[in-house]
Amino acid sequence: MPAKIPATVVTGFLGAGKTTLIRHMLQNANGKRIALIINEFGDLGVDGDILRGCGDSACREEDIMELSNGCICCTVAEDFIPTLEKLLDREDRPDHIVIETSGLALPQPLVRAFSWPAISTRVTVDGVVTVVDGPAHHAGTFAHDVAAVDAQRAMDDNLDHETPLAELFEDQLACADMIVVNKSDLMDRTALISTTQTLTDAVRPGVRVVQSSMGALPVEVLLGLETAAETDMEARHEVHHHHHDDEDDDHDHDHDHGHDDFESFVVTRGEIADPKAFAEHVAGTIRAHGILRLKGFAAVAGKPMRLTLQAVGPRIDTYYDQPFGTAPRETRLVVIGQTGLDRAAIEKALAA
Fold this sequence. Notes:
- The chain contains eleven helices and twelve strands.
- With 352 residues, it is an alpha/beta fold.
- The relative contact order is 0.16.
């Protein structure tokens, strides 16, 4: 019987740096063929596009699969398992599978799914990696922009909207085999040591707590943990009981969860001239209009590469990811916020 393919589950709240960590891993895969399953929210697929832009043979188009039917831990049977089986049935099976969960997906139900008979003999959980926003944690919270995390939760009707987000964070820590304290470059040494120690004290013995800047960790650190997490669920049990946990749950979620309180739309414009000035302008637009999250790509005059923009709250990260090639040279931004955004004013501002 062929050896089981190892799979790594990457979890962490919005803005912690999961996509950045995975992108760095792909760019430094050292010949390892990695397949991705991405729990993208909605149908805009921006995170998937960001990962496809890694510019490396390790992330071929056919090796990236997106789940857009809501929180992965609520769609295990109808969405996740069939997607995983497609990867396992391929003749050119990957060396490793990486699953980027939505920031609000509980890792425990997902890890338990690896014990399902359909896949249990073919794949195993190499490890669960929880990415933590270091500066936010040191400041006493779990995310850089708590309002943006709440907005993400409100937009998925499958999710438990009553449990405090701090309790969901505790469950992410409880399931982890490795904690990545990200954005360490934004912390002084005392704060970094304190945060690392606090997290070490909060998790079960043996869990590794590492530090990173922009998710830059060697592949050898992230992959190859060999924990077989699906066989060790007692040690990583949920700290709190959520609606996902009930095996008899029929997932009937017709009741109102406030989905209509949030909206998203796409703004398209032509090339920009000055990336730094544009990023500052975008940040000003976010502040002026109460935008919770903005992400997408920009075409910069004279540059063959796309400029990726990701903003959680007013903080914006930018980098060049891949050539436009034959794609239209346009700037495309996804705007997410509470219902009632002045769309016309935002479109006008971003087009200026």
